[in-house]
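In the lab's daily routine, each protein ends up as an entry in a very long ledger. A line of letters takes care of the sequence, but it says nothing directly about the fold. The three-dimensional part falls to structure tokens, numbers that each stand for a local backbone shape. The outcome of that step, for a single protein, is printed below.
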Amino acid sequence: MKRTRLLVSLAAGELFIGAGLFAMGFIGKVRMVDRETDFRSAVGAQKPRQTTVIDGVTLAYTDSGGPGPTIVCLHAIGHGARDFEDLTRRLAQDYRIIALDFPGQGNSGDDLQPASGTRYARLLEGFMDNLKIHEAVLLGNSIGGATAVRYAYMHPDRVQALILCDSGGLQSSSAVGRVFVGTFVQFFAAGRRRASWYQWAFDKYYRRVLIKKPAQQQRERIVRSAYETAPVLEQAWKSFGRPEEDLNPILSEIKCPVLIAWAKHDFVVPLKGTQSAFQRFPNHRLEVFDGGHAAFLEDPDRFEQSLRKFLRGNAI
């Protein structure tokens, strides 16, 4: 019992704000921030971007073009396609790199349905159809990883390989995990209500999410968009606690090659808590990188080398 209480306290403490600050957000006695901004556009797909409409949602994306194999890049919640700007530059000579903005993030329109890996997999289904992409490598980070796994399960014949970067959906449910998720839901709800302290706290939090210098500029853009993305972050974190978003029951059905690229300092999705799930993939390889939540952003040179080696090794 004492150990459980300690773990719960540590999980809650990772937000860098005390329970009193959360309480102020709940009862609405904090000063609210009302200014209109459009910072999230800088996080997402940059010009010359394109758009396509899936199930009533306008999705923005970048497409490097080219005749090589296609890699579709799926970002973490609250991020955007610009996460993959540097990776696109590195790979575009040999691969067609497509990076999209999920709804309510970057330059995509809002969705009438709440954010979840399952919802995003359905949107990805329409996205692939609209762009006439018959097969691709899927590279997913966090909720983007969960989306990629779900899509690969739905359409195994259309996925050549998966690259999972600190993927969501692999963590087994536990009492401590539910408290951890609930704490984040409360935190992002305060951002949705535009509590005046939220951006300060979000900045402290994101200094633990993207910790390495190569990710600094994108981290700063993400922090500036904190109020704009808070509603979708709240929705997504609510979904993380739902049993139907647990991917463990389907992992053994993923037959394509899987590169698991984990940032070793990830406190949101710790490596130690997910390794048992990795073993359920029939054909997987684990590599650990320097960083907090996104190896391709934080350890880009080594990530590129590992990705190229993985793709060559699987004749992609």
Summary: Confidence is low (pLDDT under 50) at residues 1-30. The radius of gyration is 19 Å. Residues 192 and 230 are 5 Å apart (CA to CA). Residues 2-313 form a domain with the Rossmann fold fold (CATH 3.40.50.1820).
